[in-house]
Structure formats: C-alpha cells, structure tokens
C-alpha cells in the first residue's frame, strides 16, 4: 500500500501545470469518489478509450495496399475485423486500467482516466473488460474465419501477458506493444486472405517500434511518470532517442526500396516514388512532436496536428493512386 506521507511529499515537489494547480489536490491524495449511477455509462465508454480505436485502422492496411478494398466482400470483412479489434482493445484497456488504478492516480494525466478517478469502479471495469475479451473470439469462432481467430487470439494473449508482467520488463515492453500494432495489421490480411509481403511487415514493424518508443520517451519526460511504470526508471532519454532514430532510419530505407522497386509499370513507379516525400515528412514531423514532449498519446497527435494530417493524407492519396490506378 502506498505511504500517504510519501505521496504528499511527491505532490509538493513535482511540478504541476496551472490547470492541475487550480483544480486542487490530485485524486491520488483523496479516496476515489463513488461512481454516480447517472454517469456510469458515459464514463465506461470513456474508459474503453474510443480515441485509441484509431490504431485499429491498421486492419485496412494490408487489404488496401493489396488493392482489395474495392471488393465488397473484402471491405466487409475488413470492417468486421476493425470492429472486433475495437472491442478487443477496449476490453484489454479496461482490464489494464483496473489493475493499474492505484498507480494511475499518481500520474499527471492518467489520474483523469475514469477508473483511476473513481468514475468507474474497478469491479465494473473488470466485468466489462472480461465480457468484451470473451465475446470477441466467440464472435469470430461463429464465422469460421480461422486465420482471423488465430490473430485475434494472439493479440489477446499478448496484451494479457503485457498487463500481467511484460510491461515491467525493459525493452520487452517496447517489443510487446509494437507487436500488438503489427498484429492489427496482420489481422487485416488474415481476415480476407490478402498476401503480406516482407516489405509490408518490415515497414509496419519499424513504424510500430517508432511510435511506441516515442510514447515511452514522452512518458519519461512527464513529471512523476517514472512512478507509474517500473520500466521507465530504467530507460534514459538518450537511449529512447537512439532507438527512435534507428527505427525511423531503417523504416525510411525499407519504404524507399519498396516504392522504387515494387511497381512494374513506369507510371506506377513514379507515383510510388513521389509518395516517398510525404512519407519522410510524416516521420520528420513525428520526431519533432516527440522532441517537444507531446508523444505520450499518439492518437491525440494524429487527431490534432494539422501538418501531420496533411502529410499523411498526401501519402495515402499517392499510395492509393499507385495501387488502384488502372
């Protein structure tokens, strides 16, 4: 059990933003408020982290780059995989927040999560998370799509292992979270039998490692962040910056090789070659944002940073033109 005296000392010494100071004592210093029945449903929805469903759009990557999204059946299965991963990821988030509620109350931002703030009880979070985690494989099993079932089961097992212990193992925690992103992308191909090229897997894997490392770096910069995650105290900003640089450099080289060598027609090769420019711009913009300390919530960056959105839109447009043109 955390020593209240130490918590008070940490609160006095840790820097606070103006909003936190104006709000009064942090939730960590007082008992969690009892959930109000009228607010449970909206709070439970927020605890499911719908903003992070943005990550599940990766299921469309393999069918999209394979040129299969114009097929109604492939599009329907891709949409179904997206919904299933939204349910699965929300279930794992609820279970993770229930397990880490006490620690999250020590974090500058995580203490506002519904479970940590007491808007959703730990028991409710566990019950809702368990229902979602159990329902997703059952739904896929009913369809008989065994490849998708295998990938989803692997995702649930990996996230479960992360929640129970992998998050506390240095370096392994980076690989585990990046692996969850890769499984999202693999699920899109598994759902419709789309081929997964080595180019695709390498770029997705390195991109996932880049995003996860940037997230850890931003967490380490957050006051009091190391108290809420055991591995953060074992990392250094310089090490995480080196991993981020290595991952992005290897990813850019791999993407350039794919863009310049994969298409057979000259016109398609030109379009794919042009996509290198916004691809590099997206990577450079993300590095800049992480260096500014705003990479703790990657989905917030994607939803709010207009230059990044414009570069990503140009990249997707050129890839789609190169894949579907003619």
TrEMBL record:
GO terms for molecular function: glycosyltransferase activity; transferase activity, transferring alkyl or aryl (other than methyl) groups. GO terms for cellular component: membrane. The chain crosses the membrane at residues 75-95, 116-140, 146-164, 235-260, 266-286, 307-325. Residues 1-39 are annotated as: Disordered. Residues 18-27 have a biased composition (Low complexity). It comes from Streptomonospora nanhaiensis. Residues 1-14 have a biased composition (Basic and acidic residues). It is a multi-pass membrane protein. Its EC number is 2.4.2.45. Keywords: Glycosyltransferase, Membrane, Transferase, Transmembrane, Transmembrane helix. This is Decaprenyl-phosphate phosphoribosyltransferase. It comes from the Bacteria. It holds the Pfam family UbiA. InterPro entries: UbiA_prenyltransferase, UbiA_sf. The keyword Transmembrane applies. Signal peptide: none annotated. It is found in: Membrane. Its main location: membrane.
């Amino acid at each position: 059990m955390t020593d209240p005296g130490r918590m008070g000392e940490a609160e006095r010494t840790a820097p606070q933003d103006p909003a936190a100071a104006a709000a009064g004592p942090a939730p960590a210093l007082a008992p969690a408020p009892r959930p109000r029945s009228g607010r449970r449903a909206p709070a439970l929805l927020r605890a499911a982290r719908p903003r992070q469903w943005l990550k599940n759009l990766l299921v469309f990557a393999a069918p999209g780059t394979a040129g299969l999204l114009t097929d109604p059946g492939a599009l329907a299965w891709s949409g179904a995989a997206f919904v299933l991963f939204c349910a699965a990821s929300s279930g794992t988030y609820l279970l993770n927040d229930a397990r880490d509620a006490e620690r999250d109350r020590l974090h500058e931002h995580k203490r506002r999560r519904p479970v940590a703030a007491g808007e959703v009880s730990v028991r409710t979070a566990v019950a809702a998370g368990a229902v979602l985690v159990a329902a997703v494989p059952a739904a896929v099993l009913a369809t008989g799509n065994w490849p998708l079932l295998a990938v989803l089961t692997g995702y649930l097992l990996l996230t479960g292992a992360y929640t129970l212990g992998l998050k506390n193992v240095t370096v392994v925690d980076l690989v585990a979270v990046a692996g969850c992103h890769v499984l999202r992308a693999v699920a899109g191909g598994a759902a419709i039998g789309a081929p997964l090229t080595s180019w695709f897997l390498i770029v997705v894997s390195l991109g996932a490692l880049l995003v996860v490392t940037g997230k850890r770096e931003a967490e380490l910069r957050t006051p009091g962040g190391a108290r809420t995650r055991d591995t953060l105290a074992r990392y250094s900003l310089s090490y995480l910056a080196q991993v981020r640089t290595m991952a992005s450099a290897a990813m850019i080289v791999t993407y350039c090789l794919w863009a310049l060598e994969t298409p057979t027609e000259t016109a398609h090769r030109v379009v794919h070659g042009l996509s290198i420019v916004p691809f590099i711009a997206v990577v450079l913009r993300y590095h800049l944002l992480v260096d500014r300390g705003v990479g703790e919530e990657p989905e917030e960056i994607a939803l709010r940073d207009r230059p990044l959105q414009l570069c990503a839109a140009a990249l997707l447009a050129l890839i789609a033109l190169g894949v579907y043109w003619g």
